[in-house]
Amino acid sequence: MFRSVLIFSFYFLAVPFGEAQGGRVDSCLTSEADAYMDRQQAALLGEVFAVARQYPPAWPAPRIRQTALYLFDAVMHDPAVAYRRPVQKIFHERIAAAVRDMEKTRVQEGARVWKLYNMGYVVRTASVTVAFDVVRGYSVGSAGFTLPDSLMRRLAAQCDILFVSHKHRDHQDPVVARLFLAAGKPVVAPRQVWLGTSLYDSVTHLPRVADSLQHLTLPGGRTLGVIVYPGHQMARTDVNVVLILTPEGIHIAHLGDQINEGDFMDDFAWIDHVAEHYSVDIMMVTVWASHLPRIARGFRPRLTLLGHEDELGHPVDDRDPWWGDTTYSEPSLRAFYNSGFPYLRMMWGETFHYLPHEK
Prior knowledge:
globular, Metallo-beta-lactamase, Chain A, alpha/beta, six-stranded mixed β-sheet, 20% strand, seven-stranded mixed β-sheet, 10 helices
């Protein structure tokens, strides 16, 4: 089953939705029904995040939080959801709240993690703040859903460096990259990203060599250790699977859209042995990755963060839900849940403080 090849054949198809066309978002509905959907999405997401505030990310997660995640799935699988103003408002509020939290948070021990959108994360230790796959949500195709540049500028000001895993629009954003570069912050990406554009020569392209420790100098003269594993999303797309070694000894892995299935299994030659060379504190991986238990055994993380759920730039049947989907991710995901590796599932704007000495 070569699922990932099919995904990108269907990205960004024209849909009968828009920014309030003739007073309606969904032209298939009456004005009354369309307005009802707006009210319903606002009410459901209000309940989702009310539960999330009372029951923040934890392992194991209480059943009520799981129910809230499933309710979030239900909202995100409305085909018109990214065009609905109440949903746009909540999305913007959640990411703005995360940025405000970054602006006031200082870390003394461990790492503070903020989940943004899709595979976008910001991780802060006592000395460095690292961003991964931060995007405005522009891949959705809705101007109202896309986060404003002013907010992204504030986010860039809170970070020291941006890592971009690969070339797809739900992981790379040229506007965000330019904001980082304008602030004197390095942007690291594979050579396939922004190839042929004016942005390309300003981006750092590190060698993709398994287990080879490289060092990056950050603003202020700080040094960050980086291993760039030569990952792939099937055959055509290079994925930088990065392992970050912070000065405090916190090791953070971000896998982007790394996927191996069918005839494309070569990357397990290094995946199976990561933990033999480096300890991994936090691993960020897609909820739909095939062979998740094997990936976890290779990295042996103390904590896994599952991401890429409910990506609104995907067709409805490919917005991977938290409840699991037997057509795609569920068998691997279910096996991972039963493997005993601690994991967290986080929604827009949520945060978690990782302490290495806590189990």
